[in-house]
Amino acid sequence: MNQLVFTQNGQPVTDSLKVAETFGKEHARVMRDIRELECSEEFRVGNFAESTYINAQGRDTPKYIITEQGFAFLAMGYTGKEAARFKELYISEFNKMRDSLNRPYANLTPELQAIFLLDQRTQEIINRVEHIENNTTIDYGQQRELNSLAKQRVFKVIGGNKSPAYADGSLRSKVYKGIWKDYQDYFNVNSYCNTLVADYNRAKQYLTIWTPQGKLLRGIEQTNNQMCIED
């Protein structure tokens, strides 16, 4: 006899084909029994899922995927000594399958069980760390590091402290505002202080390579070029 119980979406189930074969009934009869069950529509939908299989003629043919509760409800209508034996067999198979799902490593050697358990715990730690990084903002020391990188980048893009653009306090202020505005837009934060831990390394890289664009860039270039011409 083929395996009576299998898993689908992590749940032990059987199907109408196996029930028909086990109880010695025509599949069409079992399908009709399921449709005629006196149960709520909610119970029917939750425990008898419509599916298909390929029959001997190569055609898609309807069948039902049946949960443990669905089987118990259906099998109540099958009586007799043989039916009772098959019910016991099914119950035993459902119990075994449920046990194997609850204890997936039970049949492994102690060494393999230890390896899988270690892998599972390692993954749990990784998941917790990722959750923390994705929901925790950087600390004060990291905030200072980002602020320092931003100052260094502004200092460089305007040409150093001896450049005309640096001497222009208004322009220098616009460049500072520009780098943080672009930063906030890129990382979707209202302040660099709210940078996520998970984004910290990318944030440092961003500030290291940031370049002003458009009107701000032209303002820096024009100011520096103008003073050079005057000299």
Automatic annotation (TrEMBL):
<dbReference type="InterPro" id="IPR018878">
    <property type="entry name" value="ORF6C_dom"/>
</dbReference>
<dbReference type="Pfam" id="PF09669">
    <property type="entry name" value="Phage_pRha"/>
</dbReference>
<dbReference type="Pfam" id="PF10552">
    <property type="entry name" value="ORF6C"/>
</dbReference>
<feature type="domain" description="ORF6C">
    <location>
        <begin position="111"/>
        <end position="218"/>
    </location>
</feature>
<dbReference type="InterPro" id="IPR014054">
    <property type="entry name" value="Phage_regulatory_Rha"/>
</dbReference>
<protein>
    <submittedName>
        <fullName>ORF6C domain-containing protein</fullName>
    </submittedName>
</protein>
